[in-house]
Amino acid sequence: MPRREVSTHEWLRADEILTDLLQLHKLPVTVVIPTLNEATQICEAVGAAGWANEVIVVDGGSTDGTQVLARSAGATVLEVPRRTIAAQRNAGIVAARNDWILALDADERVEDELRDELGAVLAAPQHAAYRIHFRNIYLGRELRHGRWGRDWHVRLFSHDRRFVERRVHESLEPIDDVGSLSMQLEHRPYRDLTHHLEKMIRYARWGAEDLYECGRRAGAWDLTGVPAWRFFREYVIFSGWRDGRPGLVVATLSACAALLKYAFLFAMEWQTESRQPTYPAASTHERNPGK
């Protein structure tokens, strides 16, 4: 019996059916990832979120081809240049087609255990939102203590929620009904120490700008007591010492970050009062999304 040749149309149709079947096995959640110059890891980030049936990358004006790479990896890409991370997240939420949103950064990964828990939660949600415990990896080592060891964020929530827009440490609007997931989200916030210092300086400037706009001014306690308290709290009270030398480095740099924020705030106040030109505002176009 002669073999029937399969037409191109039939092959295309079979491919569409296979794609539809694969989509049926994906979780009904939209992963929203804000980016800026994340070419080195955006493909991995999108690929790692392939278990979700929609991945939206919201780019803040990358110049390294992040947008092209994200599209090639299968993500929907929105471009909202020179906006805050919160504004980027909100733009992705508005464009999402699912009822549930998982807000991620390019340096965060959902491991198999968390993915399975997400599937169970989405099948029968009991709360309006869920907080997730972060497993923070610093210079190749997991930080189990200090501030990083108790790092929780609300990242899974219904489509009608929005982030409060501010320059740094954006957070979801207040929600009364929040549950907690038991599995952790892997987070590698810094490529190396230089990257850590660069982000620390940027975030300190943004934090100072937020405080200045709220009418805050830097006093003697802010410049001395706050950094000292920050170190004592994270290294002693939160047991950062149990993470060894990485814990000492992290606690020390956290204190430095507090000092820098209030030093920038003092500089803004002094330059305004003395009618000197202020330094250029820290542009959100420069920043690398992350916590």
What can you see in these coordinates?
A hairpin with a 6-residue loop joins strand 9 and strand 10. The chain folds into 2 domains: 180 residues, Alpha-Beta Complex (Spore Coat Polysaccharide Biosynthesis Protein SpsA, Chain A), CATH 3.90.550.10; 94 residues, no CATH class. The C terminus is likely disordered. It is α/β, with parallel strands linked by helices and 291 residues long. It is 44% helix and 21% strand. Strands 1, 2, 3, 4, 5, 6, 7, 8 and 11 form a 9-stranded mixed sheet that branches. A two-stranded antiparallel ribbon has the order 9-10.
Give the name of the CATH architecture of the largest domain. Alpha-Beta Complex
Distance between the ends: 65 Å
The averaged pLDDT comes out at: 87
Q: Report the sheet-strand fraction.
A: 15-25%
Radius of gyration: 22 Å
CATH class of the largest domain: Alpha Beta
Mass-distribution shape: globular
Run of helices and strands: HEHEHEHEEHEEHEEEEHHH
The DSSP helix count reads 9
The number of domains: 2
Query: What's the story with the biggest beta sheet?
Result: 9 strands, mixed
Strand-helix topology:
Elements: H1 8-24, E1 27-35, H2 42-48, E2 52-59, H3 66-72, E3 76-79, H4 85-95, E4 100-103, E5 108-110, H5 112-123, E6 129-138, E7 141-142, H6 146-149, E8 152-158, E9 163-164, E10 171-172, E11 178-187, H7 193-213, H8 220-237, H9 244-273
Parallel strand pairs: 1-2, 1-4, 2-3, 6-11
Antiparallel strand pairs: 4-8, 5-11, 6-7, 6-8, 9-10
Helix pairs in contact: 7-9, 8-9
